[in-house]
Protein 1
Amino acid sequence: MSMNLEKIKSDLEAAVPGCSVRIVLNGSPSEQHSLVLGREHALEVARFLRDDAELRLDFCSNVTGVDWLDKEISEKVKVKQVVDGVEQEVEEVRKTRTPGYLEAVYHLYSMEKKHGPLVVRMHTEDRADGIKLPSLTPVWRSAEFQEREIFDLYGIVFEGHPDLRRILMWDEFEDHPMRKDYVEPNDYEYEPTPHDAVLEKSKQARTLEQ
Amino acid sequence: MDPELKLELRRQGIFTTTLEELYNWGRKSSVWPLTFGLACCAIEMIATTMARYDLARFGAEVFRPSPRQADLMIVAGTVTKKMAPQVVRLYNQMPEPKYVIAMGACAISGGPFKQGYNVLKGIDRYIPVDVHIPGCPPRPEALMDAFITLQKKIDAQPLTGADRPRHLNADEPSEFVVPQYGAHDLVPAKNPKLWNIITKPTSKECMAGVDESGKD
């Protein structure tokens, strides 16, 4: 059952003053549109989503992380320019650069009202130092291990999490292996049928051998 | 003793044997595996012990819950780098003579996860493996075949001489280095005494044989 995001958004803005909620449309046939919450009021917003009599989103089924790299979008823009005294329309390529960020995605359902999912996202400030997000574990206990997993693999620091430490990798591990710029140690060994990234590694190893 | 004569004597009701044969017969007929599974291969291992395949027919009816009472470690499943030190530690805790079957693609080479950041590229980097079984997962018949292969291996072991098994040679190690967790990988990444990287012959070496045969 799809949720009426416009209504949820207006309800949220009325209930939590000053909160930022943005609707992100999903163009695919599933039409799973989502809400992007501002970091500052996310905890209050989450409490409202859980406790509101109409929504009652009492079950957080899934939490996951996404790593968005810096993006450079180049688009062609028609600009009027004066060339040799005559006004002409000239195409110009404009590049816009959006900085990368880390994202946490929560899938919320209501057991009581039998509706959902509501997809809620939060963005970190950037991928380097501003990697803090409020933890939603105080609202949905089921998020605890999954937020730990996101911390382990993506490095998002969840503030207010009761027990934030690595869950899959060992404690001595450095870095966050699911980040797109993670460089794993080169421990390539002979592969009979290498392809893709492994083919590159096998070529490197062969040149080193010679 | 001449095997023909031995058979003839048996027909006449006289049973002859050697200490070595008796010893090996006893060992191969009661190999007790460790109750130990890591991933989906363990399900096939469990199926092998159940009524349909019945591994008990070969003398492996008791899976021991303690490494102190086990003779065989069936490494059934993906060995993650986080789990590898514990696997080696369990192996070290088993008394000699002890054997290892590496079951499935993951345990022998890392399998589909070989190029990942978190999976060991085969348990034979840290402990000596007697039988490798490929498959994802191997069927119970494959595990039984590996088990019978191991029994044949035990049966053929001489008790004295240079080829005697490890547990009868005081100089051979019975414990192996437990790897430590490092910043990105296990330290050491392999036990060099057990594992040397097999490099593919270079194209020059491959061509050398071809040239010689061409001259003939």
Protein 2
Amino acid sequence: MRAFFTALALICVTFTTAAFEIEEERDFPVDSPRAELRILSTTDTVTFAPLIDAFQRLRPDVSVHYTVASSQEVFQAIYGENAAFDLVISSAMDLQMKLANDGFAASHSSPETQSLPQWAYWRDQLYAFAQEPVVMIASRLAFDGLDLPQTRQDLVRLLRDHPDRFTGRIGTYDPQLSGAGYLFATQDARQSDTFWRLAEVMGSLSPKLYGASGDMIDALTKGDLAVAYNVLGSYARARLPLDGDSVIVELKDFTLTLLRTALIPQTAGDPVLGGAFLDFLLSENGRRLIRDEAGLPPIDEQALAAEQHLRPIRLDPGLLVYVDPIKRKRFLAEWNAAIIHP
Amino acid sequence: MRLALPPPRSIRRRLILQLLVVAALLAMLLYFSIRSVARDAVETTQDSVLGAATTAIAEQLRGSVDGVEIDILYSAFSMLGSISEDRVFYRIIVADQTVTGYEDLPVPTETAPLLTPIYYTRNFRDTQVRIAAVIRAILVGRTSVRVQVLVAQTRQGQEAIVATMANRGAALGLGFFAVAALLSLLTANTALRPLNYIAGAVGRRGPQDLRPVTQEAPSEMVPLITSLNGFIARLRGALSRTETFITEAAHHIRTPLATVRAQAEIALRQTEDADTRQTLHRMIRAIEDSSRSASQLLDHATVVYRTDQRANERFDLGDLLRGVVRSLDPTADLKDLILATSLPDDALTIEGDRLLIESALRNLIDNAIKYSPADNRIGISLIRANESAMITITDDGRGIGSLATGDLVGRFKRGGNVADVVGSGLGLTIVDEVATAHGGTLDLQNREGGGTCVRFSLPLL
Amino acid sequence: MRFLLVEDNVDLGQSVQKRLAMDGHAVDWAQDLHSAQDHLGVASYDLILLDIMLPDGDGRDFLAGHRRAQRDTPVIVMTARSAVSDRVALLDIGADDYITKPFDFAELEARCRAVLRRRGGAAQTRQAFADVIFDPLSATLTIDGDTRELRNRELRLFEILVAAPGRIHSKAQLCDRLFSFAETVTDNAIEVYVGRLRKKLVGSRARIETVRGVGYRLTDG
């Protein structure tokens, strides 16, 4: 009898706990909390903690529960499971756009949100708080003698001309595994034809595929990779030593700029609190902390204007196209054909 | 006699009100028109973009051996994002089966020609969306497969634009209304100006002015002016008939009376019989009485009529008094009465109705002559007393008895001691009314040592 | 005096003519304006008594025409209208004076005298009796060059007496003619005026004789 009830309890617990996969979870308690802010994010805790600490200095009555998951899981949590979080932060712009477009985001407006440039928000539901270039990282040692490619054409030519040097030593995102990777690949393909040629070339060189920027960076520093393509610039700057062997290249033909976005889901337990944290992120103080403490580039219109090669990914319904399963299937099929089975 | 008229309704107010109402209605009409036009325009524009996006996707469809190949163009959706931040939904149906997209997006109810977008508005989930549908027939193998491509957008962007335009329309409407209000005020005033002008012109006329109104009037006023002129003509006719009547009556009544009196005087000369003489005396006295009364009644009637609408002019009171004294000299002389006048050298100018004042002076001096015993002196003086001209008439007669001035001037009131003297009692009433009409005063007192002192004063200019 | 009476009413015209004749005046009577013009054409008058309403026209028009033609015979208008405005109008047209019907003949006489005095022509009316020169217009008695002024009733009394010297006038008659019919007259009123007149006649041959119980008469010597 007891076993039966235990089994029943376990089943119940399984059903009531979140079905989406959580990578990290951490509490930021305070002495006398009057409210709890629940944040679901794709950004790791280490990066985000200083921001939470700063927020709690402003709001000592708020304790924070910070959950990290992959972008797909984050999407699923809200879209499929209606999980109750007060703020959802993700680098997967397309999945965030789908959430907002399909009515899962709540509206929020404030002086801070109104201070954003037009390309950094969608409706009053989706807000970008960081703009990150998507870069290429290379090992100087591996390039010994060769010029660092400045454009994708350069890279294609380089790879084609020196297969021996780069075989098995090129890395990039696996778009099947990583939502960010899928986004970068699809946006890349949108921008120019060179993507497919690059994919084909890479495919012929036994590329290594990864699920996260961090892994690619580690591989490069370890010496496993000579080149890693489509890496999150902020991670690269954070992890790679300044005078080290590795170098960050922003390709001059175009460098995709990712917008990290936040939204307040309809299922939020305390949307006002979520809005408060969002406003904090977008405030002057918040932006400074994002840059200095989190190491992420805050939204900066002038910076974009200054660097002509930076191309921010547009926050518009176009992002929905590659979320479409048929389109996704088509793209991945082509990608597989190019990379895996050349 | 004042008529109790109902409170006047203002044409001006009514005109302005009606114009304002019309302006308000037009302004609202303008507003709603703008709204409607804006809505149509925006919808048409949005529809064309939506249609273009849908058509672009539809055109990408390819038929292959396996089925229909679908490739949704990124630019199709991105294009939709460029015109507004509306949410986007889509649905692709191949042979009545939803292949991708939002399954509950409503299909069109009417059939559409191939590759031409049709548009319809539906409720979808929790909001209203505008859907464009494009139908294509794709050849798969040997069969023709019907493919429907639906792309929808929420309408917030459109609503926002329409609202902006509507606000502008409202501002325009309000501005228009304000201008119209101003114009209607101006129009009302201008339109009614001829009315005020003519009313003013007629109002400024003197009391005797019975000329027809000849000012230029707008055609709407012509009936009124014609009626008024008709009325004036009738009044003039009535007045002249009355005057003629009075003249005729006076003539036909007084002429025989004159005959009677003349005959009585003749008879008196011809008889010595005391009784006959007494009879004839009585006759003559009766005739004098009747004549005097008639004169005073007519005089009084004239005074009452004229004091309402005086024909004011400026003249020297001294000159007028001199004239009246000269005219009554013979009458006084008959009783050996001396009219001793004391008039100033310089002019004492007053403003008033000359004929009324002459009538008053005539009555006063005539009174003095009548009531004074023969062989006496009547003092008539005119002096300046502060702001007034004062005429003082003194006689050595029998005084005014015990009655006060107020009583004496009552109509037909005669003093207690003058029953034997012929008179109707209207004389002083006339003088008092003239005095009042000109803002002057009349005062009667007994003199010490006998006689009456009458003071008649008029304000100086 | 020589009057031209212009009056269309027969009874009144007759009465006035007769009454004036009783005082010794000569009266020509015209019943309409045409005859009035005819009369004026052939004779000259001391005064015109003019009625307003005549069968062949308005007396005022006649008066205006009379004046325009530079005829300056004095005119007294007999009018039935008594309003001040009417009187003023008459004077403006050229009347010398007016009198309202029915009128007191004594007043008419007084006004005629006043008009004539204003106009001059005193010479024609002067009369002489005994050694007295009597001028009714200037109301004076001149005895031996000494001119004495007469007051109104004294004048009228003398006029009555001198019109028929030697004739006895009764007190009653004299009262009628000297006093207005509206006045109360005392018994000795006539005596008073006779006395005054006697004083003015001192130094002349003329005498006013009292005929006891009968009346008074004027005698020479």
Protein 3
Amino acid sequence: MNSHSNAVPESRLESQIMAPSVVSASRRMYWSVRRELWESRSIYIAPLAVAALFLFGFLISTVHLPARMRAALALNPAQQHEFIERPYIFAAFLIMGTTFIVAVFYCLDALQGERRDRSILFWKSLPVSDFTTVLSKASIPLVIIPLLTFAITVVMQLIMLLLSTAVLLGSGMSGSTLWAQSSLFQISLMLLYHLVAVHALWYAPIYGWLLLVSAWARRAAFLWAVLPPLAIGVVEKIAFNTSHFGNLLKYRFGGGAAGVCFTARGLPMDPLMQLTPLKFLATPGLWIGLAVAAAFIFAAARLRRYQGPI
Amino acid sequence: MACIEARGLRKAFGTTIALDGVNLRVEEGRILGLIGPNGAGKTTALNAILGLTPYHGELRVLGRDPWTERDQLMRDVCFIADIAVLPRWARVSQLLDYVAGVHPRFDRGKAEGFLAKTIIQRGSKVRELSKGMVAQLHLALVMAIDAKLLVLDEPTLGLDILYRKQFYDSLLNDYFDRSRTIVVTTHQVEEVQHVLTDLMFINQGKIVLDCGMEEFESRYLEVTVHPEQVAAARAFKPIQERQVFGRSILLFDHVERQQLTALGEVRTPSIADVFVAVIGNQAGAARAILKERRYE
């Protein structure tokens, strides 16, 4: 005990010398994002599990690959391209669908979970503002999940391609058609564009709304997120016999983004020609959506200030 | 500058008044015990001080408005709001990393040093630790922060006596250095009596007693009165009288020690006994007022 109480003043002196060290806003943000990844490991475990499962299925399907390749070689180049490309596109959509569901459930729990397990009292005892915290949580669906989706998909497609090549070489065929027609680089670029344009920017107000509900609802966040918009649509239909609100949601979830950031398919040889970033950026829906998302996120941060454990 | 300064602090939840015009001033370097029955407003007062709840009235903590400047204030203030608020999913090492990442005054080496004296493993998750170990971990994190004010709201609730004793011992020996201020609320009053420098009783949203421990010790005296002198002792208007093993124990407020020594054995009462006397009398007085009103 004695030796210890002697040691205290020294370390106290040290900490006083170190005291002026300042933690920058970006460092607080960095650690807050890391904290989210520690807590919600499903963010990467779910897509990795789906990818592993898909690869397992793909591995079994390669038994028939040489036969299918022989059939494909008889097709014209456009059909051949589509035929070879198909599993790679399917893989990308599978991972995107998974990570979208993960993002939705992450957002719904992000600000309710910390109140439910009372840990909000610990987080609030540290010099991190509500705004930084909410922003770090919003960055998960807006930045981290799209990037993660991209990385997992590209690696997965690469494994598929290498696997297929190995099988083809093993059965005495050349992999050159496969490499030429699968056009992985172009698929990757399109994927990245799609993720940024649709999953991050276009869907931003959806994530913002879910975060706001999560900050506000004491329980059943999913119901609070889904039922009020549904109710608005129903009331509008009954009162005015119109469905503007419903169409608005449909536009947000469905065709809206895809219609403005890609042209219709039909120019098969160079898929990058399908990208229309300028048209996308000129769409008012994008900017209105982003403004709404910012308002939701700001409201969620203000709400968190008032909230304690539930 | 006072560490905490409040004037006319008010807070109501619907029709329930949690804080009813609280005035308080806590100087630097004090260890204040905030004692009150359940629902007296202790936690509300602390939440206001920590910027966790909005309030009416004037409140300054280290010169800042806690409600609008919570995040800056938390550089100089730490609190343990409750045991078991550490996130159950987190590993010990992750908590160390995170606090070191966001807190400019956190000394990681110091925290590791405190943890080395426990059996807590760096790789354990909080959910795997016992209640006492979680309290130790939280205290280790908090004591490694070079803060000016530490607020503890029932920090030892539900812990066994060994952990409770150890908790206050390490707080006193390894943390408190007379330049820091500590505010603590607890129901285990007897365990903090020797720790405190100041004492405050709060009841029904009002501060009903505010004094230093030295003042407390000279002001309140407890006398085990010889049976033949009970009547003489009652003349000094004790604030409380109780029977223990057939002997009368009388509690006096503002009576000179010399006057009491003739009556029996004089000693300093426990905070708990004074608390029961002060709050109990208040409750009794309140009941009497209500009764009178009913008869009017």
